[in-house]
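We emphasize that the prediction below concerns an isolated chain of 607 residues; any contacts that depend on oligomerization or on bound cofactors are therefore not represented. The input was used exactly as deposited, without trimming of termini.
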Amino acid sequence: MKLEITTAKNSFKYSWLLSRIWPYIKPYWFRILVGFAIAIPLGLLDGVTAFALKPYMDYVIGGKEFAFNIANHGFTITSIQMSFILPIGVVLFAAAQGVLRYLNDYISAWTSNHITNNVKFDLFYRLVHMHPQFFDENSSGIIISRYMGDPGTASAGIVENIKTITTAACGALGLIAVMLYSSWKLAFIGILVLCVAFVPVSLIRKRIKETSNKNMVIGGKITTNINETYSGNKVMAAYGLQDRQYEYFKKQTWDSYNIGMSLLKRAGWMSPLMYLIASFGIAFVLGFGTYLINSGQMTAGSFASFVTSLLLLYKPVKTLGNTMTGIQNIFVAMGRVFELFDLEPEITDCENPVELSGLNNKIEFKNVNFEYIPEHPVLKNLSLTVTKNETLAVVGNSGGGKSTLVNLIPRFYDIKSGSITIDGIDLRDISLKSLRNNISMVFQDNFLYTGTIKENIMMGNPDATDEELTEAIKAAHLEEMIQELPEGLETEIGERGLTLSGGQRQRVAIARAMLRNAPVVILDEATSALDNESEAIVQKAMDNLMKNRTVFIIAHRLSTIKNADRIAVINEGELVELGTHEELMQIENGQYKNLYEMQFKKQEAAV
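Result of the prediction step, given as a C-alpha cell string:
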C-alpha cells in the first residue's frame, strides 16, 4: 500500500474510533477519571467571580446588610464586612482553581504521553515487521509522518481535548447557572445565542479532513527532502544540487502554506461570526435587561452578575468551538493511525510453519515467476538447483534479475508462481524467523547501525561468546583495524557507519555474517564498490565466510566467478546459461562468453 494514498475514511465514525483507541486508554482510566473529576469543579469555578458581583453590587455598593439564618440563629453581615469577605473569597477561589489546574494539566500530560508511547510502540512493532516491498513503495518522509506524527496528534490530543471540552463545558454550565439564578428570561436568550454560535463548527469538518490529509503528504515529502539532503550531501556538493534541493524545499513549504491558508479562508470566518452572533445577543440582553430593571423585575446587582456571566461565557464557548475544530483534526489523524494498524504484511508465516534447522540437501527453484509491478515480469519461468556447499556465481546484464533472484531466498518478496524449496520444503511453509536465521547476507552497500563496532558485529548472533566474536573478527581480517582504533571494538561508528571506509564497513558486515554461522550465504556484489587494495582484503574475508557453506554470489570480478562451482547467467529474467567457466566458454556466441570478452577479459589483463 502507498501511504500517500490515504482516505482516513472512518474519521467521522466517532464511536468506532473511540472503540479502537479504548484499549490504550483503559490501563489509565482511573487517572483519566481523576483528571475529569478535577476538570468539572475547575470549570464550575469560572462562575464564582460573576456570582460574587451580585452581592457586591446589592450589598457593598448598595450599602445594605446581608441577613441570614443558620440553625434558627440569625446572623448579619454589614456592607463593610462584605467588602472584605467577597474579595478575599474571590482570591481563595482563584488559588484553589490554580492548584486544580496544575493537577489537571499534570495528570493529562502524564496519561496522554503514556497512551501516545504505547500507540507508537505498537505501530513501530508493526512497521519493523513489514515486508521490504512496503519500504520500496513508500518514502522515508511519509513513513515518519504516518508512524510517528499521526500517533502523537491522535492519542495525545484525544485526552487533552476531551479534558478541555469537559472544563469548558462545565465552565459554561456554571456560568449558565449564574445566569439562570440572575434571570431565567435573559438566560433563555443567552442559551439561544450559544446554540446558534455552534452551527459554524459543524460546517467545516470535511474540509479539515481533506486539508489534514494533504498536509500529511506534503509534510512527508519535506521530511524525505531533508533526509535525502543529509544522506546525499556528497552527491549534492559534487553535482551542485544545493539550489535544486532548496527549490524543492521552498515549493513544498509553500504548498503546505497554501493548503493551510485555504482552510483558514474557509474556517477563519467562524470566530468573527461567533463574535457577531454574541454581539447580537449582548445587545438584546442590554436592552431587555434595562427594561427588567426599570420595571422592578430585576436588581442592578443581578443584571451586573448576568452580564458578567454572559461575557465570561464567550471564553468557554470560543474554547469549545476551537477545541471541536481541533478534535476533528485528531479524529482524522486517528483514522489514519488505524488504517496503519489494519495494514497486514504481505509476507507472513503460514498457519503451522516448519522450523528450519539447516540445509541438508539442496535449494531448488521450480518455474519461478516474479514481478514487482503487475504485468511487468522480472523473473520468467526460472528453474535452478543448488546443492549443499556449492558456490553459485550469478552474472548477467544490469537489471536482468540477479539481485531479485537472491532476495527471494530469504523471502524478502514472494514469487507470483512456481516454487522455491529448501530440502523439498516450500519457503512459504517455513517460519520466517528460522528461514532467515539460516541465511547470512552481505550486500553491496552494507548498512551499519549507530553504535559501536562490537554492537554491529554482535547483531549477527547476540548470544555469541567472546571466543566466537574473536574468531569472526579474525576471519573478517578486522584485527589490525580494530587495534588501530583508540577504543577498539567499543569505537562508535556514527550514523550508517560513515566514519569507516567502504572496505572497513564490508568487513564489519562480513564479521556479522560470519558470527551468524548460517549454512546459506548470499553475497550481493559485496566488492563492486571497492578499490583493488580494499577488495583484496575483503575477498580474503569473503573466502573465509564461504568455506563449507552454500553460497549465492552476485559477482562482477573474474576471480570470484572462476572460483565458483557453477555460473548462472541471468538475462532479462531468464536463466540462459548454466555451467562452469570452462563449460560456458565452449558455447559459441554464448552470453557468458560475450560478457567475458566485453568485461571480464579486461579485468584479467589488468591483473
